[in-house]
Amino acid sequence: MLVHSDAPSAWMDSGPGARRRILCENKEIMMVEFRFEKGGEGLPHNHPHVQTTYVASGRFRFTVEGETNLLGPGDAMVIPSNAVHSCVCEEAGNLLDAFTPRRDDFLEAHGWQPS
């Protein structure tokens, strides 16, 4: 399934000062764009999916399993399955995340039925 970037209902709240939209997905992988305001947060959480994060713009303080790093434009990281992680946006920006397998909880929250 492909979601067009101009879909009017594509963006959804994803935490304090953060929104997300699903860019594309199939059962094996999903790509999601996150947009953060300065001070926005990805609250501590974990999930069984392996996640990659690419900083398209802005600056983010990521904490993964207790280790904190500052990431800026062009930086990327892998978050292992079930690792507790969070981020705080230091400078407004966008992240491009991929999840494997896809996050069916995201599909359901957006009102889609996983196929």
Structure description:
It comes from Roseibium album. This protein has a single domain (12-109), classed as Jelly Rolls, CATH 2.60.120. 5% of the residues lie in helices and 52% in strands. The protein is built from one helix and ten strands. It has one helix at residues 104-109, and strands at residues 12-15, 18-25, 30-36, 41-45, 50-55, 59-64, 67-71, 76-79, 85-91, 93-100. Strands 1-2-3-10-5-8 form a six-stranded antiparallel sheet, with no helix packed on it. A hairpin with a 2-residue loop joins strand 6 and strand 7 (67-71). The protein is globular, with a radius of gyration of 13 Å. The N and C termini lie close together (10 Å).
DSSP strand count: 10
Low-confidence stretches: 4-9
- Determine and state the CATH class: Mainly Beta
Say which CATH homologous superfamily is assigned.
Jelly Rolls
Give me the strand/helix succession: EEEEEEEEEEH
Main sheet makeup: 6 strands, antiparallel
- CATH topology term: Jelly Rolls
Protein name: Cupin domain protein
Organism: Roseibium album
Considering the chains and any ligands shown, give keywords for the structure.
115 residues, mainly beta, six-stranded antiparallel sheet, four-stranded antiparallel sheet, 10 strands, 5% helix, 52% strand, globular, RmlC-like_jellyroll, Cupin domain protein, RmlC_Cupin_sf
